[in-house]
Amino acid sequence: MRTKFSGILTLFLALFVQILFAQQQTVSGTVTDETGMPLPGATVSIKGTTTGKTTDFDGNYSIQVNNGQTLVFSYVGYTPQEIKVSSTTINVQLKQGEALEAVTVVAYGGAVNSAKVASSIATVDGETIEQVPINSLDQVLQGAAAGVNVNTGSGQPGQSATIIIRGRGSLQGDIEPLFVIDGVPVDQDNFRSLNQNDIETLSVLKDAAATAIYGNRGAGGVVIVTTKKGKKGSGVNLQYRTLYGVAVKPKTRFEVMNASQLLTWQRDLLPGTQFGDGLSDARIAAIAAQTNTNWSDVFFQQGTTVSHELSISTGNENTSSYTSMQYYKQEGITLGSDLTRFSFRNNFNGSSADKKFNYGTTLTLNRSVSNFIVDAVRGNNTGGQLDNPFIVPYIGLPYLNRFNPDGSLNTFGTIRSQAIDTNGDIDNPNGFLNTPFLALNTARFNTDQETEFKAVGGINADYNFAKNLTVGGSIGIDYTNIELLQITTPGSIRGLITPNQGAEVKGSQGETFFRDANFILNAFLRYQNDITDKLNLSASVYGEYNYSNTQQAGYTAFGLNPALPGSSAGFTSGNTQEGEDTNEDGILDAETELALNYVPGVFSTETELALASLFATLDLDYDGKYGFSGTIRRDQTSRFPKNSTGVFWSVAGRWNIDNEDFMSNVDFINALKLRASYGVVGNQGVGTRYQGLQTVFADPTSYQLGTGYGLNGLIDEDIKWETTNQLNIGLSFGLWNNRLSGEFDYYNFLTEDLFSNNAPLSLAQTGYGTVTTNIGSMRNSGVDLQIAFDVLRKSQTNPWAITVRGNANYNKNRIEELPVDFTGVTLRNAEGRQAATWFDVRWAGVDPSNGQPLYYDVDGNITNVYTPNNRVYLDKNFDPTYTGGFGADISYKGFALNALFSFAADRWRRNGSLAIIEDASLAGFANQSVTMLNAWTTPGQITDIPRLTFQGRAEIGDRYIEDASFLRLRNVTLSYTVDSKILEKTNVFSGMRIYVQGTNLVTWTKWRGFDPEGNQSGGFFDYPIPRTFSLGFDLNF
Amino acid sequence: MKKYFLIPIIVTLLFTVSCDDQLERFPVDNLVEETAFQSVSDLENGLRGAINSINRGGGQASLLAFNSIFTDNCKVGADNGGQQIALINQVLNEAGGDQGTWADRYNAINNFNRLLAAASTIIPQTGEEDAYDNILAQSYAFRAYLHFDLLTYYAPDLMDPSSLGVYYQNVVATSGLPARQTVGENLIEIENDLTLAASLIPSSATDINYVTPDFITFLRARIALYTGDFNTAISNANTIIANYTLADQAQYAAMFAGDGDSTEVIFKFDNVQGNNASIAFNWIFTGTGGAFMEMSNGLFSEFTAGDIRRSVNLDPESDPGAATPLLIIGKYPPNADTNYINDYKAMRLSEMYLIRAEAHARKAAPDYAAAAADVSAVRSARFGSPQTIAAYNSLNQAITDIKAERRVELCYEGFRYIDIKRYRNILNEGIERASADCETVPCSLPVSSEKFTFPIPQAEINANPNMVQNPGY
What we know:
The complex is a heterodimer of chains A (about 1050) and B (about 475).
Chain A: E1 24-32, E2 43-46, E3 52-54, E4 60-66, E5 70-74, E6 78-79, E7 81-84, E8 92-93, E9 95-96, E10 103-106, E11 110-113, E12 121-125, H1 126-129, E13 148-152, E14 161-165, E15 178-181, E16 184-186, E17 199-205, H2 208-211, E18 222-227, E19 237-248, H3 259-268, H4 281-290, H5 295-299, E20 303-315, E21 319-331, E22 338-351, E23 357-371, H6 392-395, H7 435-445, E24 447-466, E25 469-488, E26 508-530, E27 535-558, E28 577-578, E29 595-596, E30 601-622, E31 626-637, E32 645-656, E33 669-683, E34 695-699, E35 708-711, E36 722-735, E37 740-752, E38 755-760, H8 763-766, E39 770-774, E40 777-792, E41 800-817, E42 822-823, E43 827-830, E44 837-846, E45 853-856, E46 862-863, E47 871-877, E48 882-892, E49 895-905, E50 908-911, H9 912-916, E51 961-963, E52 966-977, H10 980-984, E53 991-999, E54 1003-1005, E55 1018-1019, E56 1027-1036
Parallel strand pairs in A: 1-8, 15-18, 50-55
Antiparallel strand pairs in A: 1-4, 2-3, 2-5, 5-7, 6-9, 10-11, 12-17, 13-14, 15-16, 17-18, 19-20, 19-56, 20-21, 21-22, 22-23, 23-24, 24-25, 25-26, 26-27, 27-30, 28-29, 30-31, 31-32, 32-33, 33-36, 34-35, 36-37, 37-40, 38-39, 40-41, 41-48, 42-43, 43-44, 44-45, 44-47, 45-46, 48-49, 49-52, 50-51, 52-53, ...
Chain B: H1 2-22, E1 30-32, H2 33-36, H3 40-55, H4 59-69, E2 74-76, H5 85-88, H6 101-119, H7 129-154, H8 183-200, H9 213-226, H10 230-243, H11 249-255, E3 265-269, E4 284-285, E5 290-291, E6 293-295, H12 297-300, H13 308-313, E7 344-348, H14 349-362, H15 368-383, H16 395-410, H17 416-427, E8 431-432, E9 444-445, H18 458-463
Antiparallel strand pairs in B: 2-6, 3-7, 4-5, 8-9
Helix pairs in contact in B: 3-6, 3-7, 6-7, 7-8, 7-9, 9-10, 9-14, 10-14, 14-15, 14-16, 15-16, 16-17
């Protein structure tokens, strides 16, 4: 069944049948579709009452009704019909609804008719993200909706992305949207355990009219996730789906030297002392012939993805349910990086026989196990860790042999890599030269694993207890429990220096237990009335309480007995002393400080956050032509004790021009709606949960290991939420029978009381250079465009259907006011400029006469002197100016081809990885780019690589600030759906679909690395996002 | 109808009423400042926290590194992957060039000020008076010590009381834009704090890991020398020298091997495993012992045979005979924990001899013989046998010798840059590196360079329009 709803109560087909007297009678009949097939589960209700029935499996109904009353026949996806009762048998044929009359999921309101929405909301159909082997529901939004900029920092399976909706709205505060799954606000940075196939729709709320109802959490936008529900009266449907995929490394956009190149270059050109020095050509040839390792081959693997899913949806007259179970395993493109998950969901909905009381529960229980590598975004990593597998393809020396003499893979190192000395003793395996082996060793022998249990659930109910009045409430919880296990094995290379080099027993084991619970409690009263035939009013008041509690506890123990892995029985006692025993009397020398190498680390912490709110909404509709919506919310937060209360609001209006009488003759316009909204939304996500309290830390191991108290950084007790004033003007249209449809929005958002941790203080006076508080303002303005065009539509005569669609956003960010003028060093936030603007010395190439690097000074003159004083604003920004996506859906008979491209343009990042392999000072122990072969050697030589005596990586200015724009074939699927007539004969299957899919297949970019994407301003040996090929089956029973 | 309306109204009312309690959330893991200090024992916690703040992060280590690397005591090490390259290239700018000293010192001072403010609200119980007075004395003395550190690095000319000093922070404030005071004004405040400290400190305060009466005397001698009050320097030095003896060779070696001896230590920061990081990490890759920065060939050539300082300062892993000599800095050795955690001996007796020597040479009526005798006393202790006493004929000669002795005696202890700065106008000599040490880095820094005074950090200048930048920046 199509998941798109359509057609609810929009068209009124009044039948003018004269009724003379009212009298209760039983009316029965059959509801069918256009082809005459019965529609089970269609709703038959009496207009103006809450009485209703649903049709049975054969489409039959019967209902008690007064003569002269009007029956409304409705069914999802079909245009409702109203028929005044004039006989005891009424058979109805419903017609399929029209595309633009889709519904939109709004905050606290569920699905409403899109035509009546005055705010800016982008809807992403669950179908478009189903079975895409990218396992984080925020990541899959890339390219799917206008104004939604998605960047991922790592190719780790399940990695959460950074989402920015309509531009960076805050400098220091939370910039990501609030995520609400079935009414429960959830952690915005952890979706790895959730099964995205359960998603029915994603609604991206983009303006104040949509988000002000979320008060001080709405400024970054809101993503409302609605999961699948069973359809009442649909019977039992069973679906099995499976997917098998292979992930491979992305295209490499740099080239490093091979063994022969590097050794010859070291010998002939590179100053200083290296391995290549003094080797004869014959010797180099011999070494290169024996060993020429391409370390990319060693570190990239084919990662497989396997998914099995079973879902059951049921529905009878008054209840429906949706249940799914999924097993999912995804391996990364390097050893030791994977995700294994089991997820379960059950959504249940029911209503009383008179439909006045409705209730529902949603519950998802998930367990996932993730293994991590030492990648650039894990923990406090920077990417520069030598055991980061993605540093090796850059700097791994090609003349190091990856194999042991017996042909097995060497995981410790060689004499040449200085892991062992010529006597076979351990030398310096943790050194630079040994990087490839160190990375292999850590991936193979050490453990960094998270086991997560995540439950998101809720219960909701509403009761239409009087005419026009409904009372309701809901309770929800997002609960996450993560157990982190980190083991540094005694025998591993890192184990040699854990707890430290001198310790006799090596290795460490740490476990951390992280519990995060978010509760939400909500109650509401709604008044709904058709005041006149044309004027509809709906108003609601809500009370809500949110509470978050996060606890963490853990330990790290040192000195592991290798015979007892994973058990505290193998931990060395923390009391164990070590030191020197020069006279060998068995008593350690007391005159030097003895070492306590095995003292375990322990910790336990807890934080809380509470939010109490009252809010109200008002919606007015006049004749489907004009609408007004207003929301107001009063939030009280525990985060800012001195400024706990904030009021946020919005107003919005719409004009459905297409419903005007003067438009009735304009045939080619099917829908035309003008929208405008203005409102104030807040952001409280800054700093810690106690940002408004001056706290003092107690450190139990302070001076001389006594307890020490100290100020926890200076805070501003008067800090309060940021507010964003949001204006949105939009036009929705559908032309030529909705063949061309789309939305165009202009927005202008002004964030005031901007959070900054850089409110300047005099260090001399206060002891602190900065404090986090509200200073400045920032504007994001731009346009969103979303458009779809049906080139061909399927019909009786035409088996082809072609739809092309696209979305784009142009965003202009400007810091309007920042009293400190700027913050940051080379990536700056400066008044009058875009946030995250690069500021650096401009590189001017290499002086052909002497090979010196040249720069531009502030005035644009060329100079050979590097000084930070020559830094200038480069008009290059980390955040993209243009983002979007486009694609096509093409189908022919049972075949369908769906493609989605995503892009981000005018986006600049610093390529730190490339800077490392073009730095001669590191060339003794780090392989170099082949471009270094062109280093300047002779006067008059034109090259962009300076003379190799130039060794200043600190003096490169903007040389490696690169265009990280990209266009990517995000996903392409070719599927074949088996004709249902054939399947009918099997008596087993009711649907069968087979497909092949490619994800991130091609990326066009100027970035000279693996992956331009990244969510950090600097790329430094990032874990690239893989290319994935997959094959899947869907079977319906 | 009314009864139905009541239900949600009551529900919402319950929400809002109960929520006021629900919204008062206090941290579990931290104290709130208003209630953190209730007793003398809390103040002792505050004192430990404040002392620790002097030494956390870059802390002392960053100044040890600066004095060694910026000058002529280091060369680029064999295992350098870019570490401290800006420093050895003598990059000293307003953006972080001061190694965070301005921020670290003023922040630590602020901690002592907050401690004093908290103490003012507490009345000690009977029997706690000494402990209470000691906390006050420690706070005043460290406040003076830290301000003198600032003065040493940020004042262009310590010898001129009317020249630019720093701001003396002796109140707790969360706003304000102070201007620089003069050196003379700062010195008065420093002496006031030292006088207060001396009057409060109980006789029981003899722990060399904290302020003692000798700490105060020592600091007064050092301040007097740097500011040109040579007779005060001599009299304070006499007091200290009378109370201690110089370490012999074995004691000297033990002092720098796991802090095994403290014969001549007047004050040290007690760095321990479990709290402090290595103070050698700017030279030594403490995970593996590789050298980011090595001892310069120039300094190495200053150590002659028989001098215990040669074996103390040069790690046994070194290979001075190699074509490219490997000279690993050994003053702060790995020790049993191999974490290179060693105490920072901030006040040693030998410095006091050299202070007295310099004061004798520079005072109004120079006593070169006394100066030479003090230098010789240090040398004799280090060589384990009486060394000849030089005969100085001029200030230049005396200072040249004292400077050389201070270099070998106090290398890697945070003096070299300040020494070169102090002597540069007497000897007309800036930083001069040996040619073997400066193949890829600058070989000298001229006497006239502005880099002999730290720039006030740009952050302070930006935040505080009343703050005057040092000349040349």
